[in-house]
Every structure is written in structure tokens, then in C-alpha cells.
């Protein structure tokens, strides 16, 4: 055992003798490791077989030593797997580093670690960081499923772009409740429609689509119902199409059915269509779907059924 | 007569020789019903990966397993008769790994989501059994993902896109399963893999950096699971 640890330390400490220094350290993660770095990485992998008490001092030496940024970034990932206050403190300190590559990996590793205090401390990093840092912190909260922090970021956003970015992450997290709270606020930020669609919140999209708000937003909401992959969403689009007398809303519903690939729905509408114009529009949509239903409709049209 | 197994192997561009591929290809172009059958089979496989709440029927699982065993036997026989190119072997492994991963994944999901068994009949606690089953499944997933990533370089663009899509879907489901198995730490790591995996799908240029990062992290996680199982078999958490 002692020999194994000695070997690991030796492999991880000899970085400068043969590790190549990258020309742009901040882009270390954007290249594959060199052969020498591969050796150091194999040693880091070996640390997983050691106890945290033994692994932590070695990782600290790597981070403080002459290894390349790429090796140090990987060491941060290993650090995220160690459940100790000291490991979390190192990650937090590195998340405030001026080295973008190390900072980025530390922020990601805090997300992977999932420690509530460290995640909370990322709020300060978010507030003082630029757009790239903000995005990295949002992704860390996404990894940690910290919906409340992302919600607060959306709520306190200083620009429309910031709000949209946070809302998009909430959508990816399926944070229906938080998105609805944002939607209920006066002057609801843009980007909500897409986030509702991505999070699968059909009820909120229908509320917008069938409400009395901005017409363009309503049309967009109808179209984006098609993103939700469910029978209920398909049924909603058919219903909106059948009920509405607004041409643009009907077109948006048809586009939504195209996105949802609901050829049976479009075929049913085609069969029920009363006017040649409507039949033509529906047939064109079916043709774009390129399925069996299109063939049936084409056959029926040519046979004048 | 073209069997379902042959259609699946044709779709994954593997396990069939040139003559067999040509025969099935010609049949598919002449028979829309056959093409439809193949799409339905593929959709069923995709659905198994995308919908953990719907268990794959026992009969389908048995058929996959039988197909894999049969393919393995045929492979053994063919290897004895003639040498094969390494690319073909890689692709065959990738397809088999993807298929087996779907089966393993389904079994894991079933174990994680099943109702607690009869307490009176248990010697080992259900939580420990589920956790162990989950970890075995996850180890397989990590090893399978590493193996599939290794074959990406030799895959055609279509195969590559399909494999990445499969890996991303499997990864997402394992993250969900990790949450359900009470392993949030593992779930977070798997969620952290997602953007890197997705970057592989969108990376038009050199993806060697992303691949190297993923391989490293996959190996670290395998090491962690291995040491956790050896060092503390009685604990449900694998945190270091």
C-alpha cells in the first residue's frame, strides 16, 4: 500500500520534468492530454482507490504544484468526489480564481459536489462574474438541481439576457413551479414560453395561448405546445385548431402539430376540413410529414374520395 | 423470411455480411411493410431507453438476450473460419454494448422502481439489495459508455450521431435512477456528463478533448464505485 501511494505521489509531482506547458493555459480543457499528462491522469484515477484522508493531501500538492492546467482541472473533478470540508473549501477558493479554466472546472465541481453551503456561496461568484461565469454557475446549479438559486437569479436579473438565460436553465430542470411563479409576476420576462415547453408545462402554455395577452406571445405559445411530446399536447393542438377562428392561431396550431409529428391528427383535420383551401393547407402539412397518413390523404385527394 | 433480429442488426449496420446486407436492403426497398416493421422495432428499442416508467416486456428482453447470445455464437464460429477487420469488430461491440446497456438499464430501473418485497422473506434489507443492484447496473453503464466512446472515431457520421443520442438517453435515465436509488451524488455526476456528451454531438471539429475528459471521469467513477463496493459493502452511499 505504501509503495502504491509513493508511486502515485511521485507520478503526480514530476510534472515539470516532462509535462508540456500548454500555450494557452485557459484552453487546457479544449485539447486532449499529452502522453505525459496521461500518466499523471492515470495516477489521479488511482487516487480513487485510496481513502479521502490519503487522497486529499496528494490532490492539494497537485493543485499547488507545477502540473499543467489540464491535470489540475482533472484533480478538481477528483476533489469533487471527496466528502470533506477542506475539499469543498479548496473548490470554493478555486471558483474565485482569476484563471478561467480552473475557475470554470471548480464551479462545475461544486455543482457535482452538491454541498448546499458551497452552492450558496456560488451566488457571490454569479453576482460579480461576467456572462461566461454566470452561465457556468447556472450550469453548476443545474447539475446540483438547485432550482431555488436559479429562480432567484431569474428574479433578480439585471438584464433581459440574464433573465432569459436563467429561465432557460429552469426549463431544462423541469422547474414548473418556479417558472409559473415567474409567469405570474407583472412584466413576466421573455423566454418563459420556451421554458414552459421544454419543462413540459402544457397547462401554462394553454393558459397563455387561450388568454388575452400579447397576440404574438399567444401565437408562439400555441406553436410551442408541439415541443411537448405527449398525447395531451397533441390533443390540445387539435382542439385549438378546431375551435379557433383566427387564421394565425390555426396556422400556429398546425405548425405545432408538424413539430409534434402528429400526422394522425392532421389527417383527421384533413378529413374533417370543409373548404378546398383548408384541405390544401392540411395536405401540404401532411406531405411535409412524409408519413403513411400523407400517402392516404394524397390517394384520397387523387381519387376524389 | 427476414427476422426481427436481422432487421435490428441491419439497422445498426452490424453483424451481417455484405450478402446478407444486400438481401435485406433490397427487400426493404421493395417492401414498405418490412421497412415499417424495422422502424417499429427501432422505435420500441428507443422507447425502452426513453421511458423508464414502462418496463420492457419479459418476452422482448428474452428475445434480445437470445439474439445477443446467438450473435455471440455466430461471431465465435465466424472468427474460427476467417479473420475480421478491427473496425467491424468495434462496431459490432458498440451495437452489442448499446443493446445490452438498454437491457441492463431496464433491469436496473425495474429494480429501483419496484415495490418493496415481502419483508418476512428477506434476509438482506431491500434497500441494500436495490442499492447493490443499482451500483452493478451503473458500473456496467459506465464501462459500456467508455467502450462506446472508444468506438466513435471509427463510426460513420450517422452511426456516431445515433450512438451519442443513445448514450445521452441512457445517461439521463441512469441519473434519474440514481436519484430514485437515493444516490444524489451519483446523479449529479451523471448530469454533469450530459453537456460534455452533447458537445460531442455538436462538435464539428476535433472532439478528442471532450472524449478524453469523459473517459477520465468515467474511469474515476468506476474506480470510486469499485473502491466503495470493496471497502464498505454495507453502506448504501458510495461517497468517498
Key attributes of the depicted protein:
heterodimer, A: 305 residues, mainly alpha, 20 helices, 73% helix, 0% strand, B: 240 residues
Structure write-up:
- The complex is a heterodimer of chains A (305) and B (240).
- By secondary structure, chain A is mainly alpha-helical.
- Chain A has helices at residues 2-13, 15-18, 35-46, 52-64, 69-80, 85-94, 100-113, 116-128, 131-143, 147-155, 160-173, 176-183, 192-199, 202-209, 215-225, 231-243, 247-259, 263-272, 276-289, 292-303.
- The longest helix of chain A is centred in the middle third of the chain and has 14 residues, at 100-113.
- The radius of gyration of chain A is 27 Å and the shape is elongated.
- Chain B is built from 9 helices and no strands.
- The longest helix of chain B is centred in the middle third of the chain and has 28 residues, at 86-113.
- Chain B has 240 residues and is mainly α.
- In chain B, helix 1 (4-11) crosses helix 3 (32-50).
- The A-B interface holds A 29-33, 41, 44-46, 48-52, 55, 74, 77-78, 80-83, 108, 111-114, 139, 142-145, 292 and B 36, 184-185, 187-189, 191-192, 195, 206, 208-209, 211-213, 216-217, 219-221, 223-224, 226-227, 239-240.
Amino acid at each position: 500500500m505504501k509503495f502504491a501511494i509513493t508511486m502515485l505521489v511521485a507520478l503526480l509531482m514530476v510534472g515539470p520534468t516532462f509535462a508540456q506547458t500548454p500555450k494557452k493555459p485557459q484552453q487546457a480543457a479544449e485539447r486532449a492530454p499529452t502522453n505525459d499528462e496521461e500518466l499523471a491522469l492515470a495516477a489521479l484515477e488511482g487516487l480513487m482507490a485510496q481513502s479521502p484522508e490519503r487522497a486529499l493531501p496528494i490532490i492539494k500538492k497537485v493543485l499547488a504544484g507545477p502540473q499543467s492546467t489540464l491535470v489540475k482541472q482533472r484533480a478538481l473533478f477528483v476533489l469533487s468526489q471527496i466528502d470533506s470540508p477542506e475539499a469543498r473549501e479548496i473548490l470554493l477558493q478555486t471558483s474565485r480564481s482569476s484563471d478561467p479554466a480552473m475557475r470554470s472546472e471548480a464551479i462545475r465541481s461544486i455543482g457535482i459536489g452538491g454541498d448546499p453551503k458551497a452552492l450558496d456561496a456560488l451566488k457571490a461568484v454569479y453576482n460579480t462574474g461576467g456572462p461566461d461565469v454566470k452561465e457556468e454557475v447556472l450550469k453548476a446549479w443545474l447539475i446540483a438541481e438547485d432550482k431555488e438559486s436559479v429562480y432567484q437569479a431569474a428574479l433578480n436579473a439585471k438584464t433581459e439576457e440574464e433573465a432569459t438565460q436563467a429561465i432557460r436553465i429552469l426549463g431544462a430542470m423541469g422547474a414548473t413551479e418556479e417558472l409559473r411563479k415567474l409567469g405570474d409576476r407583472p412584466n413576466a420576462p421573455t423566454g418563459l414560453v420556451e421554458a414552459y415547453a421544454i419543462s413540459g408545462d402544457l397547462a401554462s402554455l394553454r393558459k397563455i395561448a387561450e388568454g388575452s395577452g400579447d397576440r404574438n406571445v399567444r401565437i408562439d405559445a400555441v406553436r410551442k405546445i408541439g415541443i411537448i411530446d405527449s398525447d395531451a399536447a397533441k390533443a390540445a393542438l387539435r382542439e385549438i385548431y378546431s375551435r379557433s377562428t383566427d387564421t394565425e392561431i390555426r396556422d400556429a396550431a398546425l405548425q405545432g402539430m408538424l413539430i409534434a409529428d402528429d400526422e394522425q391528427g392532421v389527417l383527421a383535420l384533413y378529413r374533417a376540413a370543409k373548404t378546398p383551401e383548408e384541405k390544401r393547407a392540411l395536405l401540404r402539412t401532411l406531405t411535409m410529414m412524409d408519413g403513411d397518413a400523407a400517402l392516404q390523404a394524397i390517394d384520397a385527394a387523387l381519387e376524389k374520395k | 423470411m427476414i427476422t426481427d433480429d436481422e432487421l435490428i442488426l441491419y439497422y445498426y449496420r452490424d453483424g451481417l455480411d455484405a450478402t446478407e446486407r444486400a438481401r435485406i436492403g433490397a427487400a426493404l426497398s421493395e417492401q414498405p411493410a418490412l421497412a415499417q416493421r424495422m422502424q417499429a422495432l427501432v422505435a420500441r428499442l428507443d422507447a425502452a431507453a426513453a421511458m423508464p416508467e414502462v418496463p420492457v416486456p419479459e418476452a422482448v428482453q428474452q428475445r434480445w438476450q437470445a439474439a445477443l447470445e446467438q450473435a455471440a455464437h455466430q461471431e465465435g464460429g465466424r472468427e474460427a473460419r476467417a479473420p475480421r477487420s478491427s473496425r467491424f469488430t468495434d462496431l459490432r461491440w458498440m451495437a452489442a454494448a448499446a443493446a445490452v446497456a438498454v437491457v441492463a438499464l431496464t433491469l436496473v430501473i425495474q429494480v429501483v422502481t419496484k415495490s418493496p418485497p415481502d419483508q418476512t422473506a428477506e434476509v438482506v434489507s431491500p434497500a441494500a439489495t436495490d442499492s447493490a443492484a443499482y451500483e452493478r447496473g451503473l458500473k456496467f453503464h459506465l464501462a459500456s459508455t467508455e467502450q462506446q466512446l472508444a468506438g466513435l472515431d471509427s463510426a460513420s457520421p450517422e452511426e456516431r450521431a445515433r450512438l451519442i443520442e443513445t448514450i445521452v438517453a441512457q445517461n439521463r435515465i441512469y441519473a434519474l435512477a440514481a436519484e430514485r436509488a437515493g444516490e444524489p451524488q451519483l446523479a449529479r455526476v451523471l448530469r454533469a456528463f450530459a453537456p460534455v456528451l452533447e458537445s460531442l454531438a455538436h462538435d464539428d471539429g476535433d472532439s478528442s478533448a471532450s472524449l478524453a475528459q469523459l473517459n477520465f471521469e468515467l474511469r474515476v467513477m468506476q474506480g470510486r464505485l469499485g473502491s466503495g463496493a470493496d471497502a464498505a459493502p454495507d453502506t448504501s452511499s458510495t461517497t468517498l
